[in-house]
Amino acid sequence: MKKLIQSDSGKSKFLLLLPVLTAGILIGAIYTTGHAVDNPWLHQYFIPELSGNTIYEVFRNTFVSLTAFTVTAFVMGLSALGQPAGVLMLMYRGFGIGTAVSHVYITKGLHGVPEVLVMILPECLAVAGITLLAIREQMRLSRGVFISVVSEKLHTDKKFQLYCLEFLVLIAISFFIAVLTALMNYIFSGLR
């Protein structure tokens, strides 16, 4: 375990972020049992019937939600205090996933299983992957900025251009996820 924590590899940092995302999912699921989740800030457009009524609305809401999250992670990576913000952002994203799945099960019971498996789970897995990558990169740069501030010498293992390129790629992937989510919502609208 000590070697895993000391390792600076991307894979180990990726794995260390999973429990934070999982905690957010559990908190969202528990929260939903006693509260309404009609607010987009809570469900983050993961609930198909709350994502929009047309294919364009579903695409727009999904893409804007994913892009806003990714841009926020990008900006927070430029801060020396971005690491704690990254943990909170990861929990927030997990909260949205937990809220969506829990809401469907609470409102539809076992009849919601097909909707979760076909419409929610694939999107949530793709979004969780993007989220983990964005937060990992954000934390890397934020760590370098923090060390530079504390030690008064430049310490970053990442060039800014590469950081920008990584986040542009994540936004492009978000675009494709939004397109696929809109198509899935259209094709499987009977499950909603």
Could you say which structural class the secondary elements and strand pairing correspond to? mainly alpha
Taking the alpha carbons of the first and last residues, their distance comes to 44 Å
Largest sheet: none
Q: Please mark out the parts with pLDDT under 50 across 5 or more consecutive residues, or reply none.
A: 1-7
Summarize the structure.
This protein has 192 residues and is mostly helical. It has helices spanning 2-6, 10-32, 40-43, 55-77, 82-108, 113-151, 160-187. The termini are far apart.
Task: Tell me what the structure shows.
It is built from 7 helices and no strands. The chain is an all-alpha fold. Helix 2 crosses helix 6. The radius of gyration is 18 Å and the shape is elongated.
Keywords summarizing the entry:
192 residues, mainly alpha, 7 helices
Layout of helices and strands, plus pairs?
Elements: H1 2-6, H2 10-32, H3 40-43, H4 55-77, H5 82-108, H6 113-151, H7 160-187
Helix pairs in contact: 2-5, 2-6, 4-5, 4-6, 4-7, 5-6, 6-7
